[in-house]
Every structure is written in C-alpha cells, then in structure tokens.
Design a protein that fits this description.
This is beta-N-acetylhexosaminidase. Its EC number is 3.2.1.52. Belongs to the glycosyl hydrolase 20 family. This protein has about 500 residues and is α/β, with parallel strands linked by helices. Helix content is about 40%, strand content about 20%. The strands form 4 sheets. It has an 8-stranded parallel barrel, surrounded by 5 helices. It binds zinc ion. Zinc ion binds next to helix 8.
Length: about 500
C-alpha cells in the first residue's frame, strides 16, 4: 500500500513538474520537450551554433545557461526553428529582465506540413503586405504558404501570351455592391522575390490554380475556353459557387494551361501545384456541353466523372513533364470516381466531413492535410456577434485550439496525415489589417496543433503564453493581437 502511495505521489509530482517546466517558457508552438535545469539566465546571447545531423533535419536542441544559449540543429530547417525559439525566449527575457529559468529544449515538429493559405484572388495582397504576413508565419514555425492565385473574382498570375489576364481578369468593377473598383496582378519578379523571402524563413510557396471551376475571371477575358461562351461575362463582384468551368474539349485550354505551368515552373521551385478542384458543378456544365456529350458517347464513358478523371490525369502529366505534382481540395464524389491517384495529396476542408475523410483517404492511399472548416477556416468570425456575412459560423480561439489533427485516433489509422493548414478566404478581407485580424491569434492555435505532440498541449498553458505573445508581437512586429467584439476593422 505504501509502495502504491509512493508511486501515486511520484506520478503526481512528475505531472506537476512537467506542467511547471512548460510554464517556464512562453514559446508557441509548445516545444516537444522541455527540461529545466539549475540557475537563471539574464542574457540569451547565442554562444554556439552547431550542426548535429543525427537530430533529423527539422529538429533542434536549445540549451539556456546563465552565460547564454547553445543551439544544435539537424539541418537548415531545424536551425531556423531553433533560432525562432531563441527569438521568442529573447522577447520573454526582454519582458522579464530579472531572468528566465535555465533549461534544455529538445524539439521537432509533429507534422511536416504546417501551412497557411492566403487568397489574393478575392482581394489582392500587395507584396509588401504578403512579406509582413510571412514574417509572422515564420515566428510561429509555419513552413508552407499556399497562394490562391485565381478565382471567379480575380486572376493574379501573369502568363506570357495572355495579356487579357492583366487587362481584364485582374480587375473587377466593385465588391459586393460597394461601387469601388478593385484590381491587382503580381509580376513574375515579385513572385520570385517572395519565393526567396520565404525560403530564407524556412517557408515553401505553393501556387494554386483552381480548375476546372472557380474561373469566372478567366471567362471574362477568354470566353472561348468555356462550354457555353458568353462574351458579356464580367469578373465576379460577389461570392458563391459559379458555373464557369473550363471546357476540356477546347484545344485552346491545353495550350493555355501549358503556358500557365511553364510560368509556374519558372517562378516556383516547389514540386507541388495546387489544382483546386473544389466546388465544380459538373452537372450544370460538362454534363450539358454538346462537345462533352458527344465525347462521352464516342468513348463509351458512363458519366461526367470519367471525363473529369481523364482531364485531371492529363493535367497531372503536363505537370509531371515540368517536374511537378498536383495536390487538391478533397471532394468525396471525385474520390468515389477515382479521380485522385494513389499518392496524390489532398486537403480535407468541408465542415463536419473530416472524420469520414480521414477514413476514406487512408483506404485510398492519399496523403491528407487537415484544413477542417470548423477549426482552420480563419476567415470566419472569432467572437460571437462579429460580422459573419449572414452565414459563417463563429470559430472561437478555443475551437481552433481544440484541433487534434489525428482526431484522437491511433497511429495506424492516421499515419497518412501529413499536417495542418489554416485557410483565409478573402471575400471579406480587403486589406492586410483585415487579414491579420482574422488570422491571429487563431493561427497560433493552428501552429501548435501542427507542431506540438498532444501530451504537451494544454489550453490553459496556451492562454497564459498567448498573453505574453501579445506583448512580444506588439514589440517585435508592431502588431496588436488583442481581440474584442468591437475592435475589428469594419468591412464595407
Ligand atoms: Zn464543354
């Protein structure tokens, strides 16, 4: 009995100790392992910076001593993450000049993919604003930036030989009836600069060219790419799911996408191109297109999804010729029709469907990234009563924090999950200020979901750290993460 009591007491003490160790530092995302040692550090000068390949390329170890800090890292990525942790500790020390405890942080990410998607298609994001956004991403150890470059409301990628993308597709007359024209297009050089800027911070840029749907802006410039060409098509000024799907039977589109992919190859070193694939109402478009009807009859295809499968396979082979692979938003009917090929990476996003999608993608051999609407859609309001365009659910900080990318399931059912991604659809995010307001502080929660093992995560500790992080971010980035019901910039 005494022995049992001793064991219980020790267990209670070790839980208490673990909690105390965690509470010593205000690092987000929470490191995988923290051990406090004797003493107090009043300086965090970097005393040594060593390569230790045995740690693994994205792992690092940071030792805080009374004289300063020692870093060892497994690779370029691990070194970047270790230096970021050191920055956060330096910010903590600046707020507590009496000193912070000495200790050893042994750290590496739970998942290799910790992404954020921004949507310059709906509202153009000038390059200097994107770089500020990237600075904050790096401070929270995100490592993938997905650029949603095309949609019904705008096309932002220049493509040689297609000047109307700039003169027509990159401009719209107004947004949601506000009467204010909006436009923007990146230059090839700006995008290359962004890629280099991100690479220096450990972030890979993945371009997204949404297809076959979400293409009204393209239709405004090149109506001949579509099943039912309408020369009066305008770039969309509202939201919603449109009927502008490119027609696979127009030879022009294959020439066009070859030019698009050439441009992507020259700008983005990433081996991935996101081909969208969400919200494509085939039944209202390809299903009725005379060219499609005839083609399906000739080929003996049973339905429009067989045609889609051929379309995506052709896109994949065009990308393969340029050293790239497609990735997709997951749509269940596409999966049922075997449109995805084994090994294709997909994102789960639709509200409520992530648990079933985890099961389905495991069976199909599809690597999965969790962008579950109910946790990761950071364009939704974060405090009840904030503007929701009449339909968006409120996703509180705690709701975002609750995400366990594995949904509590065992390793053997979830070993195809490669990470998490926050998405900021921008219909209602017209400026950097709007974008950052909704992104933070919920992105800190998603960062921790993607990085930290569940056994070191705690909502209470996260809230404590976040209070400190607000001060760090204000001082380091001149950005205020405080959120109240009233302090959101208004959307008009
Ligand atoms: Zn067609």
């Amino acid at each position: 009995m005494l022995k049992l009591l001793n064991i219980l007491a020790c267990a209670a003490l070790s839980v208490h100790l673990a909690a105390a160790q965690q509470a010593a530092y205000s690092v987000i995302p929470e490191p995988a392992k923290t051990n406090l040692t004797q003493g107090t550090a009043r300086t965090l000068k970097l005393l040594s910076d060593k390569a230790s390949p045995a740690l693994g390329k994205d792992a690092y170890q940071l030792t805080v001593t009374p004289q300063g800090a020692h870093l060892s890292s497994g690779g370029k990525e691990g070194r970047i993450y270790g230096l970021v942790t050191l920055q956060q500790l330096q910010d903590q020390l600046a707020a507590h000049p009496e000193g912070i405890p000495c200790g050893v942080i042994k750290d590496k990410p739970r998942y290799p993919w910790r992404g954020m998607m921004v949507d310059p298609a709906r509202h153009f994001i000038p390059m200097k604003d994107l770089k500020k956004f990237v600075d904050l991403m790096a401070y929270y150890k995100f490592n993938k930036l997905q650029l949603h470059l095309t949609d019904d409301q705008g096309w932002r990628l220049p493509v040689p030989g297609y000047p109307k993308l700039k003169s027509i597709s990159s401009k719209r007359a107004e947004s949601f009836g506000n009467g204010t024209p909006h436009e923007g297009m990146y230059t090839r050089q700006e995008l290359k600069d962004l890629v280099a800027y991100c690479a220096a911070r450990g972030i890979e840029v993945i371009p997204e060219i949404d297809m076959p749907g979400h293409n009204q802006a393209l239709a405004a410039a090149y109506p001949e790419f579509f099943c039912f060409p309408d020369h009066n098509t305008k770039v969309s000024t509202i939201g919603g799911v449109g009927l502008y799907l490119v027609c696979p039977h127009k030879p022009e589109i294959w020439k066009f996408y070859a030019a698009v992919f050439d441009e992507l190859r020259d700008i983005f070193p990433s081996t991935m191109v996101h081909l969208g694939g969400d919200e494509a109402p085939l039944e209202k478009t390809w299903e009725k297109c005379p060219l499609s009807v005839k083609y399906r009859q000739q080929k003996g295809m049973k339905d429009v999804h067989e045609e889609l499968k051929e379309f995506e396979a052709k896109m994949a082979s065009m990308l393969a010729a340029r050293g790239k692979k497609p990735i997709f938003w997951y749509e269940k009917p596409w999966a049922q029709a075997s449109v995805y090929r084994k090994g294709d990476t997909v994102f789960t996003w639709r509200m409520g469907l992530t648990p079933s999608t985890i099961t389905e993608t495991k069976k199909q051999g599809l690597p999965l990234i969790i962008a579950a609407g109910e946790h990761c859609y950071l364009d939704y309001p974060q405090i009840p009563g904030q503007d929701n365009r009449g339909w968006m659910p409120t996703t509180t900080l705690e709701q975002s924090y609750k995400l366990d990318p594995a949904y509590g399931r065992p390793e053997q059912e979830t070993d195809h999950i490669i990470g998490v991604q926050a998405t900021m659809w921008a219909e209602q995010l017209p400026t950097l200020n709007h974008l950052l307001y909704r992104t933070y502080p919920r992105a800190c929660a998603i960062a921790e979901a993607g990085w930290s093992p569940m056994n070191v995560r705690s909502w209470e500790n996260f809230q404590r750290k976040l209070a400190d992080q607000r001060q760090f971010v204000l001082k380091r980035f001149n950005y205020n993460m405080e959120r109240t019901k009233e302090n959101e910039p208004p959307f008009k």
